[in-house]
Amino acid sequence: MKMNKYVERIYNGVIKENPTFIMMLGMCPTLAVTTSGNNGLYMGLTTTVVLAMSNLLIAALRKLIPDKVRIPAYIVVVASLVTIVQLLLEAYLPVVNELLGIYIPLIVVNCIILGRAEAYAAKNSVGLSLFDGIGMGLGFTFALSIIGSFRELLGAGTIFSFKITPDSFEPITIFILAPGALFTLAILTALQNKFKLPSATNGSVSNSIGCGGDCSHCMGSTCTTNREEIASQDEVATTKMKAAKQTEINETQNQK
Amino acid sequence: MKELIMIIIGSALVNNVVLSQFLGLCPFIGVSKKTNTAAGMGAAVIFVITVASVLCSIIFSKLLVPLEMEYLQTIVFILVIACLVQFVELILKKYSRPLYSALGVYLPLITTNCAVLGVALINVTEDYGLLTSTINGFGTAAGFTIAIVIMAGIRERIEYNDITKSFQGSPIVLITAGLMAMAFFGFAGL
After folding, report:
1. Are B118 and A178 in contact (CB < 8 Å)?
2. CA dist B141 to A110, A206, B68, B136, B152, Å?
3. ipTM of the complex
4. Which of B1, B85, B95, B105 sits in a 20 to 30 Å window from A242, CA-based?
5. Which of B21, B112, B171 faces A32 most closely, judged by CB atoms?
6. Residues 6+ apart with CB under 8 A from A77
7. In this structure, what is the dihedral angle of CA atoms A87, A56, A199, A234, given to the nearest 10 degrees?
8. A208-240: b or e for each residue (b if 16 or more CB lie within 10 Å)?
9. B100-136 pLDDT, tens per residue?
10. How far apart (Å, rounded) are the C-alpha atoms in residues A83 and A73?
11. Domain chopping of chain A, boundaries
């Protein structure tokens, strides 16, 4: 079946290249705000708005922005959008603003947004980029809501604030605290490894997004050399260690 | 003085930036394979976050508040941080080769480290003055360094262990981070 190319972008964002479950991007907000299903949903929707608008604007400006200053230009676009969204939330949905707090301005450094700008919006038409942004955003929302509901269910016995567990169930409070987020993600990635599902963590997904699920490598072309340098440093360290061990072994043999 | 020490302990240990606020989690997992690279990253982060908190605090109180443009804080801070990182890199390259070769690799990676922007924003929302902001920035960065170096130390040991196949790689790292986060709860009593 051949899908409409706009529908295909949505499908791609929600299922095929889901930013959280498959690409493992934007882990900081994923872990920090998923203490409940509602929080995850709000964060996801806020990010979706920013992502769709930033993809739209960057695709529209893609021929005007010189290649050399594209990253700073993208950052300015995204930061302006985040400021607008934050002001709107403050005015019309102060509850959400209160709940998410500092994580709203931090959407600027969410690597899903820069990643999509760099990998998709900079090369494709305005309409497709908009749908790509919406698809990716919905995929992110979906993932955050699921992780949030899972943690809320185990940690507080509720889902989206509705109590569903019997009174005899003692909530495992650790799951809505910081360590619970890490454990939840660990279980998720372990399951993906176990069933060999496509995921950036087991290297079975071909990564079209430059940074490979690692925010620290988000800066596109500037980081390729960096990554190589870090890798070579690591290599030097290992060879040194090996050499040291070898000499140690040799010495002990000599003593014998 | 006592208050400043409380802020350092609070930001470095009790509210550890990585383990309880999840800021800067990506470098924490990405660059923690070897202790010496982790320490290099930590040093670069301490340097950048401290300078960035000083600059952002000055710009906010001396420029944005008098002009009544506080709502521009996110844009201004991210630009200041991005420029600062580039600037520091250029200066180190020109004047201090040894420092550059030690920290240079990690500097560009720091622009997207959300801890830097996070600290600048926390300083503003908490109404910290210049000195308090600086101390808070330094404390937070020190907390990041403590966490990443401990993590690298543990990961070096984990390499030699026999781990269930599906938990190899990132799952075991996340479990370790979770256990560390639980251990850091202990500091809440301080």
Report:
1. no
2. 20, 34, 30, 9, 16
3. 0.84
4. B105
5. B21
6. A54, A57, A58, A61, A117
7. -80
8. ebbbbbbbbbbbbeebeebbeebeeeeeeeeee
9. 777 767 777 776 678 888 999 999 988 888 999 999 9
10. 16
11. 2-205, 213-256
